[in-house]
Amino acid sequence: MKRNSARTRRAYIVEALLEYMVSLLVTGAFLAAILKQVGVSDALTGVVSSFISFACVAQLFSSMIVRKGSSVKRRMLILALVNELMFSTLYIIPFVPLGQSVKTALFVVMILGAYLILNLTTPVKYKWLMSFVGANERGRFTANKEIVSLIGGMLFTLAMGRLVDYCKEIGREQTGFILCGVTMVAVSLLHMVSILLCDDEPENAPRPQADNQLKAAFSMITGNKALRKLLLIDVLWKTAIYMSTPYYGTYLIGELGFSLTFVSALGIVYGVVRALASPQCGRIADRRGWSSLLTLCLIVAAAGFLVNAFTRPESRMLYVVYYVFYAVSMAGINSGLTNITYDYIDEGYFAQAMGARNAVSGIVGFLASLLGGVIVSRIQAAGNTLFGLNVYAQQVNSAVTFALLIALLAYTHFVIAKMPRLSDEKSAS
Fold first, then answer.
1. At 89, which helix (H) or strand (E)?
2. Are 238 and 357 in contact (CB under 8 A)?
3. With helix as H, strand as E and coil as C, how does 293-340 read?
4. Spatial distance between the Cα atoms of 198 and 127, rounded to a whole number of angstroms
5. Could you tell me the pTM of the whole model?
6. What is the DSSP string of 356-386?
7. Predicted pLDDT of residue 362
8. DSSP 3-state of 96
9. CA angle 11, 13, 16 (to 5 degrees)
10. How far is residue 43's CA from residue 277's CA, in Å, rounded to a whole number?
11. Superfamily (CATH) of domain 1-209
12. Quick one: three-class SS letters along 173-210?
């Protein structure tokens, strides 16, 4: 059967948008709001938020879900359905007549399971659907796909945030969360349709052995000096970010008192700023290299977290300043952390190198969130005081993140930037 590449590419763009819309309802302020309904502490909320990092480990085992002769499309459809049904139950759990401990345990199992399945399918789905895009079109196609997701996601979160806030204003907060759950089910069903509209990968397409990714990842870590140096970037970055950001959702809604509508509007600001900054970051990377871009963006990120270390209820609008700085920095950091691999690792080993980096950084991020949770619990238990000073836990965590980013900045500038790039070695030879 002839593959309809054009239709599949269009369906892939819609699929990415719908998957993004689902994810928005189970992260950030929305996740914090649900967990507040369950009665979960801020510390545990942060740990739950970090499951998205821990679940990256599942990417090492993605080859297990496909075999030669099997239908990739069918596997992706089934696993996506299970994954999104688990996400949808999160909006039901707070209102089930069960004890708080049972509801909390059920919530943890569902969200962790959903994220593990999502990460398990991500590499396979990416390989499958990107096979319909020509090599010389991938940059433009990926940009268009991300712009559609960004715009659609911004409008979606604004609408859903306003819905929850309105229901809260009229004294029917529970109804608002139930409507979010119903919306998620509807979006999930549309997501299934978008997958169905994609053509399947040919049954005779090359498929990896079940243990290839795992073995290759560990072999890369032990045998490649450049990769080990890049891993330290991931370790420092994930430690810095997950020390603080998982706890911002509860801080925004609780201590700072922002509405979900305002938080959703902040998401629009983030998207616009990041979209405007991305082309500039690309030009810097082309002219000066990815390590230089990372250095510059880390300076901006560190400045943002320093601002957030002084953000309190009486100065809560400083959070907007932080968010703008963070948006600018992430325009370059996300692409920089990925593409810097091409500077120092042979392209033929790119997949294995990224698998190793994602797995290690995922575990590190999760452990960092546990440490951040300890700080949050201790300071909140002391009545928001530390060494006799009135301070909020998120301020302390932001200060720790700032210090770690300074360390990462120094390492990137003085170690990574001094490493010989593969392109330089090829030019010399």
1. helix 72-89
2. no
3. HHHHHHHHHHHHHHHHCCCCHHHCCHHHHHHHHHHHHHHHHHHHHHHH
4. 13
5. 0.76
6. HHHHHHHHHHHHHHHHHHHHHHHHHHTTSEE
7. 87
8. coil
9. 105
10. 33
11. MFS general substrate transporter like domains (1.20.1250.20)
12. HHHHHHHHHHHHHHHHHHHHHHHHCCCCCCCCCCCCCC
Selected from 3.40.50.150, 3.30.365.10, 1.20.1250.20, 3.10.105.10, the CATH number assigned to the domain covering 211-429 reads: 1.20.1250.20
Instruction: Please name the residues in contact with 10: beta carbons below 8 A apart, sequence gap of 6 or more.
Output: none
For residue 142, which amino acid is it? T
Q: Which residues pair with 386 in a beta bridge?
A: 389
Strand-pairing partners, residue 390, are 385
Residue with tokens 């991020």: 365
Exposure string (b/e) for 398-423, b if CB count within 10 Å is 16 or more? Answer: bbbbbebbbebbebbbeebbeeebee
Rounded-to-integer distance, Cα 108 and Cα 54, Å: 13
Contact (CB, 8 A) for 59 and 120? yes
CA 255, 261, 264: angle at the middle one, nearest 5?
95
Q: How far is CA 104 from CA 45, 173, 244, in A?
A: 10, 20, 22
pLDDT tens digit sequence for 109-146: 999 999 999 988 887 787 788 778 776 676 567 767 87
Residue 69 CA from chain centroid, whole number: 32
> CATH 1.20.1250.20 region(s) of the chain?
1-209, 211-429
User: In whole angstroms, what is the distance from residue 13 CA to residue 418 CA?
Assistant: 39
Instruction: Copy the structure tokens of residue 195.
Output: 């997958």
**For residue range 225-281, what is the model confidence (pLDDT) as tens digits?**
888 888 899 999 999 999 999 888 888 888 899 988 898 888 888 888 887 887 788
Q: Is 258 left (phi over 0), alpha (psi -120 to 50) or beta?
A: beta
Residue 222: partners with Cβ closer than 8 Å, 6 or more residues away = none
Q: 23 is written with which tokens?
A: 């994810």
CB contact set of 411 (below 8 Å; sequence gap of 6+) = 232, 233, 236
The 8-class DSSP code of residue 255 comes to T
Rounded average pLDDT over 100-104: 91
Q: Return the residue matching tokens 């979606």.
A: 156
Strand partners, 385: 390
CA-only gyration radius of the chain, Å: 22
